[in-house]
Amino acid sequence: MAELNIVEKVIALEAVDLLKNLNPDQLARIASIATEERHPPGKTVIEPEKPQDALYVVLDGAVEISRNRAPLHTARQNEVLGAWALFDTDPLAVSAATVEDTRLLRIARADFYDLLSDNMEITASIFSTLVKRFRQLVEQ
Amino acid sequence: MRHLKRLWRDFFDIREGELARTALMSLYLMCVLFAYYIVKVVSRAMFVANFNPDKLPWLYILIAAFGGMFAYGYTRLAIRTSLGTAVNAAIGFFIGTLVLLWWILGFKVDWTLYVFNVYTSLIGIVLVSQGWLVAANVFNPREAKRLYGILGLGAVLGAAFGGTFAAIVAQYVDAHNLVLAAAFMVLLAFFCYRGAVRRTGASLSRTRAIGEEDADFSLGYVARAVGKFRHLQVIVAIIAITYIVDVMIEFQLNAQAKLAFGEDTKAITRFLGAFYGIYLNIATVIFQGFLTGFIVSRLGIGGALQIMPITIIGASLFNFFHPRLLTAGAARLLEASTRYTFNRTGMELLFLPLPIDLKNRTKAFMDIFVDRLSRGIGGIILVLLTDWLVLEKYPHRVSLLVIGFAVVWIFLSERGRREYIATVRKRLETRRLDFDVARLKVRDPATIRLLEQTIESDNPRQAAYALRLLAGASGYAIQPRLASLAGSPHGEVRTAVFEIARTARTPDLLEQALAETRSSRGGDRNSAVAPAVAYALTVSPDPRDLARRLLDHPSYLVVSSVLEWLADQPEMAQDVVTLEWLAACADSGDPERRALAAIAVAARGDHGTEALHKLLGDPDTTVAKEAIRTAGKLRERVYLADVIRHLADAKTRGAAIDALAAFGVRVSGTLADLLEDDSVAVAIRRQIPRILQAQGDQRAVDVLLRNITQRDLTVRAAVLRALQRIRENKPNLNYGGVSVQRQILDEAKYYYELNAALAPFCDKRGQRGPAGLLAATLEERLRLTLERMFHLLGLRYPPREVYAAYLAVNRGRREEVSHALEFLDNILERELKRIMMPLIDSEDRAAHHGSELFGIEVKDAATAIRELIRSGDDWLASCAMATAAELRLGALRPEIEEASRTAGPVASRVAGDALAQMA
Fold it and tell me: pLDDT value at position B77?
């Protein structure tokens, strides 16, 4: 399967909750720094206790998330892994490994920061999403 | 046919969901006016036939006195209960009393004619004003502006039928029997009112004229409201003049009728019935049905309010020079017809922007009480003038007085228009908050004691603030306090101590200041270091030597503070900061030393050194930023190119913008060249408007205005934002009206083009996939285009208010949008209004307006995609090609193949995928 073009990447990114306030032009800019990765079954994508430096969107396939080898959730198409890694360098307490042939879209934190520093309106939109999410948590 | 449809829509623009409400409210007003005109014609004819004209002014005074009392009682009822209850009660009251009056009039006693006339004056004004009040709650301001003309038409038809009915039937039956017919029409009005309210959805039982805190409504409240709101003052003044003039002109007509017909009741009834029922209403129908809406939408509220006084001046002049029943009738005809049409609509609009509670609380009172009082004043004036001017024989002499009032009225109308716009603006700006910081002035001993306690507190911020206030207190000995606080554990407090001591040039704290510098280490963030260094250098007996010694201090903070202080002592800086020291720092491997070198160049100047060029290209962001700041301070053109390059780097961009702004007008030409040069990177060009904005002079504005047509939309948006910010701060600069208007029209055309392109994909909105993405992109482009248009409008009209209107339109809340539209409708010039208003007002009909205004027709999917592929916008073209592949539009292959060869790499890749998918 050929690598995704920019329109297909944007369509994939539209499903990311963290980016849902962004308009298509802004998503296209993020898509331009997103790279596609292909992994066979059993490949560890997120290792516990190791700092994360990227966010992943599952394009197709499946990734199992587990803690202490106990499965928590299996992420499938359009689901996101490590969204908070974009803002927090602390390692996660979970691991994630592919359970079948899987394609992922990867956004590296360093590239993402460069993009934000040049696109204030994207930063503002993401802040807005984070604030809304925080407010929901507080109201719960 | 199309022209006819357009004509119809211009006059009667009833939209989906509005027909039933409009028809029922119109019928309600028609029934009420029918009843009113029956009793009006009969009561006045009976009075004129039975009494001489000199009794008429007394009748007006009686109407004022009793009407005022009744109005007050009625207003209390309306305010204490819901609007719905008030309307029900009033209708019930009038049906009952009309039947009672019919019975009393049968006894044919003179005083009953006074009662009949007083009563008649109440019935129309109460029920009609209630009708308009209900209408204000049934329709929003925007709907009202379109539909009030139709409601007024219902009122005019009611008056026509009522007057004519009275004139005809009075020939066959005793006049007083017509009162029963009036009662029946009021009953019909009640059913129409109920139907209209039921279809509104909003319950009038919840529409209280006042809140709970104001349940004890009083005359004082209305007086306070009028005293507080200038808008209401103008309304009161206009209503007062309207009815004073009304009484005078009516007096002329009745007096001339008496002179012409004597005591012939039937003849007077026939004349007044025909006058009010036919002639008056033909004029009113023409004005209301075909001119009022047109005039209001073209001339605005000010024009609508001025038509009546201007007309009255003309008619009164004619009547004065040719006094007879015909000319008095003509004056009355024009006065009454313009009052029911232009003036009524203008006044209702004048009320609209007021807060709904205030509007409901005062409107009934204004319509009834101010009306009565003004008629009473009119009556008193006539009583006073009757003998002097011999009005019984020469009633036309009142015309001169009428002309005088009408002139004042014209000025009041213009004032009303201004107040109306000001009120709309205030409502739009409600969301803006301004904070005023009040400075505390220390004078009394109690405050001094409080501040002394505060500086000893554990809260360093409060302590430092209190210390500064004490230092500013006249006659207060601050030195002892400074000495004790110089040892405070809080850096913020010590900062205040050294700053105050430096200002006072008190040398006592030198040791403490030097201790502060000695304790500073690399990476130190102690805020007291810089003020301690500045203080020590200021009070030191040998600052040159001290500065030289401190330059070798290991702390960056200490050295940079010395250099900052030396920047104000250029001669000493030349001596202390040697070229050798500078070169050593500039060549250091330590970025902090290189940053110090950059600061040092600012302090001593760049004579004899090329260090700054090198530092401007330093890979370390901190060093580069300091070098940029120094370039801004030196303002030497040789550094311009180096600084401009930093505009493309997000990390140093802020410093570069500040530095270039500091260069001032000397670099406006260079910046203009860069902005206009398409070969310069967009990342740089997009920042130039911010620099010009910081410069904020006419030259910067001129450069920005030349670039409002920039091809790159992000650059264009930046240009417009910068222009708007400058305009907010410097409204008196020239913002090039004609070119801005032209650009607004171009943007509007582009908006309609985008909308036409979006039309075939509207059903794809919200869907995942290329077509959904294309629809979302086009919608975003529409939003940005609208934003640019508002930025442009902000260059021609008050920018804050225009921005508030944009936010209101963007938020899309119904009432806010209505107020925003109302505001724009009143400030925009005709040509702009013609283009802009349909675009904002009826977004759902944008395609229709695009066709009507610019001949832009909605496209089919293939045509829209073809044009988007050729648009030159890589992202739009990419979405369009992916959509073509998704929709299997094989006819577009040639365009996609061409794009795959000529577009940028990203779009070419999408084109290749689209072709593969279509194969």
Answer: 65
Rounded mean pLDDT of B634-641? 89
Tokens of B88: 């029900």
What backbone phi and psi angles, to 5 degrees, belong to B203? -85, 130
- Cα–Cα distance measured from residue B657 to residue B696, given in angstroms and rounded to the nearest whole number: 13
B13 burial class (0-12, 13-18, 19+ CB within 10 angstroms)?
A: middle
- Residues across chain B: 919
Q: Which residue in the set B683, B780, B882 is minimally distant from A7, CB to CB?
A: B882
- Mean pLDDT value across chain B: 83
Specify which residues A66 forms β-bridges with.
A71, A95
pLDDT higher than threshold 60 for residue B432:
no
**Lowest-confidence segment of B261-270, B344-353, B695-704, B764-773 by average pLDDT:** B344-353
The closest of B164, B179, B214, B202 to B96, measured between CA atoms, is: B179
Altogether, the residues listed in chain A come to a count of 140
| pTM score of the predicted model | 0.59
Task: Give the CA angle between residues B405, B408, B411 to the nearest 5°.
Answer: 150
> B210: pLDDT confidence band, cut at 50, 70 and 90?
very low
pLDDT over threshold 80, residue B366: no
Among B59-63, B118-122, B162-166, B294-298, the range scoring the smallest mean pLDDT is B294-298
Tell which A residues from 29 to 68 touch B, by Cβ distance under 8 Å: 32
Phi-psi map region of B211: left, alpha, beta (phi>0 left; psi -120 to 50 alpha): beta
Which of B222, B241, B220, B218 is closest to B232 using CA atoms? B222
H or E stretch including B139? Answer: none
Cβ-Cβ contacts under 8 Å for B93 (sequence gap 6 or more): none
The string of DSSP codes covering B762-822 is GGGTT-SSHHHHHHHHHHHHHHHHHHHHHHHHHHHS-HHHHHHHHHHHHH--HHHHHHHHH
CB contact under 8 A, A11 and B769: yes
| DSSP-assigned beta bridge partners for residue A104 | A37, A58
Q: How many C-beta atoms lie closer than 10 Å to residue B691's C-beta?
A: 25
What type of residue is B358?
Answer: L
Across the beta sheet with A70-75, the strand order is A44-46, A95-98, A63-67, A70-75
pLDDT of residue B533: 92
Asked whether residue B627 carries a pLDDT value surpassing 90, the answer given is yes
Chain B, nearest residue to A15 by Cα: B768
- How does strand A54-60 pair with strand A35-39? unpaired
Helix residue spans in B540-590 (DSSP H): 543-551, 556-566, 570-576, 579-586
Contact status, residue B11 vs residue B147, Cβ threshold 8 Å: no
Q: Taking chain A, what is the end-to-end CA distance rounded to the nearest angstrom? A: 43
Report the chain B residue with the minimal C-alpha distance to residue A14.
Answer: B768
Assess whether pLDDT exceeds 70 at residue B435.
no
Phi, psi of A74 (to 5 degrees): -110, 115
Q: Kindly state whether A1 is in contact with chain B, defined as any CB-CB distance less than 8 angstroms.
A: no
Collapsed DSSP state (helix, strand, coil) of residue B142: helix
Contact residues, chain B to chain A, C-beta under 8 Å: 650-651, 683, 768-770, 773, 776-777, 780, 875, 878-879, 882, 906, 909-910, 913
Give first-to-last CA distance, chain B, whole Å.
Answer: 47
Give how far A52 is from chain B: nearest CA, Å: 24
Please tell me the distance in Å from B909's CA to the nearest CA on chain A: 7
Q: Do A11 and B768 touch (CB under 8 A)?
A: yes
CA B729 – CA B726 distance, rounded (Å): 5
Residue A55 reports pLDDT greater than 90: no
Q: How crowded is residue B291: how many other Cβ atoms within 10 Å of its Cβ? A: 17
CA distance B675 to B622: 27
Structure tokens at B124: 């129309």
Query: For A107, phi and psi rounded to 5 degrees?
Result: -120, 110
**List of chain B residues whose C-beta atoms are within 8 Å of the C-beta of residue A117:** 650-651
Structure tokens at A50: 């190791």
